[in-house]
Amino acid sequence: MSEILGEGELINLGLCINSTWSSKQKEEDDSVSTCSDPSIDNKLSRLFEARDKLFREDCLKNSMDNAEGKNLRLVRLLFDAATAVDTHDLSSAIDTLQEIYKSTSLICDPIQRVVAYFADALIARVFSRSPFYGPTDKVCADQEQEFLAFMEFCRTLPIYQFAHFTANQEIIEAFEEEVAINEGRIHVVDFDVAYGFQWPSLIQSLSDMAKTSRAISLTLTGYFRNEEDITVTKDRLESFANGCPNLSFKFEGILRDSRSINIHVEAKSTLVVNFPFRLQNLRTSQEIKDTLASVYSMNPSLVVLVEKADNQRRSFLPKFMELLYFYSAIFDSLNDFLPLESKERLNIEKYHLAKEIKLEIGQGHIEETFGQENSWKETMRFLGFEGKKMSSRSLSQAKLLLKIKSPFTMIGDSANCGFEAFEKDEGHEIVLTWRDRALISVSCWRCTSQWI
C-alpha cells in the first residue's frame, strides 16, 4: 500500500491526496471487532506493551533520530495503518501500529510526535466499542489536566486568540451598525462555548463602549457538553462581568442533546450566532441542515463561522491525511515557541492535541448529501446564507496580534515567526497560516431572503 505515496509527495509533509481515493463502503459502525483468534490476542498484547512503553513518563527520552528517511518511513507506516483500519484488516493494523510505537518518541522532531499521536487515535477508533478501549485511553487526562493544557495552548500559540479576537471584532461592529435601533442590547448564541475563553474580551470591549447614561446589555446563550461545564463557565464569566462597569450580563447554558430549546431574544436586540469549529463536527448532512435551519429561523444580524481552513467533508482516508497536514503544522509551530523538552509542550500535546486528534479520527462514517468536495462556504450558500465582507479592522487586529505573540520579533518588525493572517475570497474570509499552511479561517454570514 505504501507504494501509493511517492518520495516527492512525502518530503516536507507533501502528503498529497489523489482525488480518486475513497474509503470503501462500510456499515454505520466503523469500529473493528476483535476476534477470538489467539494470534490476534498475542498481537494485541504486544501492541499495548509497545504503546505503554512509549507513553510512560520514565520512558520519555529525547530522540533526535529525525533523519528524513525515517520520517518518510513513519508516514508511510501511518498511512498503511490507516488503510488497514479503513478496510477492517485488524491483523495488519496491529502489526503496523506496533512498529510505529517502537520507532517514535514523544520528545523528538514534530513529524515523529504527530505520527505517534495519530497512531494512538487509530487505536481509539478501532477499539472504541470493545473491551480493549480502556488501555488505549491512558493518554487522556482528567478534566483539570485537560483544562490546564488548553490554557497553556492558548497562551503559547495565537490560534485561538486569532479566532476569538477576529470573531469578536465582527460581533462588535454588527452591534455598532444597529446601535440606533438595538437600544444597547446584544444577544450572542454560541454553539460551542468550550471553556468560555472567547467572551471576556467581548465583555470588556462592550463595557469600554458603554456610558454611564446608557449601559449595554449582553446576553450569552451557550451550548455545552455537560452540566458541570455550564456551572463552571457561568461562574467564571459572571465573575468577570461583575467587574465591568455599565454592562448588564446574562448567561444561559444549554446541553447539546437538549430536545426542546426555546431561546428567547429580546425585541430589537442585535442577535449574533457564533459557530467555532462546530459545524464540521456534525456527522450527517441532515444535522447540518437542521442546525442551520434553526439559526435561519432566528433571523440573526450576523453568523460567525470559524473553521479549519480548506476543511471539506471527505471520506476517511483523504480526511485522515488532511488532518495529518493540519496537526503537523501545529506540532511544528510549537517547536518555535517552546523548547523540545518543555513540560508545557508535552502537556499540550498529550492532554489537549491528543484528545482533539482522537475525537476527529474517531468519528465514524459521515453521510454525504452536499458532495464530498463541498467547502463550508458552498454549504452555507446552498442553505440560504450569503457572505459578508470582513472588516479591515479585523485583519489589522489579527496582524498586530501575531506580532505581539511572536517569540522572535519586536512589534515594529515585519516577520511573524511563521504565523501570518491575510484576506481571502475578495475579503470575505480571514485566514491564519503557519509557514504557508492554512490553519483556520473566520468568515461572516447573513440570511438571504429565502431558506432553501
Protein model, in words:
- The protein is of the alpha/beta class and 452 residues long.
- The chain folds into two domains: 170 residues, no CATH class; 174 residues, Vaccinia Virus protein VP39 (Rossmann fold, 3-Layer(aba) Sandwich), CATH 3.40.50.
- It has 15 helices and nine strands.
- Strands 1, 2, 3, 4, 5, 6, 7, 8 and 9 form a nine-stranded mixed β-sheet that branches.
- α7 crosses α13 and α8 runs parallel beside α9.
- The longest helix has 22 residues.
- The chain is elongated, with a radius of gyration of 23 Å.
Sum this structure up briefly.
With 452 residues, the protein is α/β, with parallel strands linked by helices. It contains 15 helices and 9 strands. Helix 12 packs antiparallel against helix 13.
What is the topological layout?
Blueprint: H1 7-10, H2 38-55, H3 68-86, H4 90-103, H5 110-127, H6 133-136, H7 143-156, H8 159-177, E1 185-190, H9 199-209, E2 216-224, H10 227-242, E3 247-255, E4 270-276, H11 285-298, E5 302-308, H12 316-337, H13 343-361, H14 376-382, E6 385-388, H15 392-405, E7 419-424, E8 429-434, E9 437-447
Parallel strand pairs: 1-2, 1-4, 2-3, 4-5
Antiparallel strand pairs: 5-9, 6-9, 7-8, 8-9
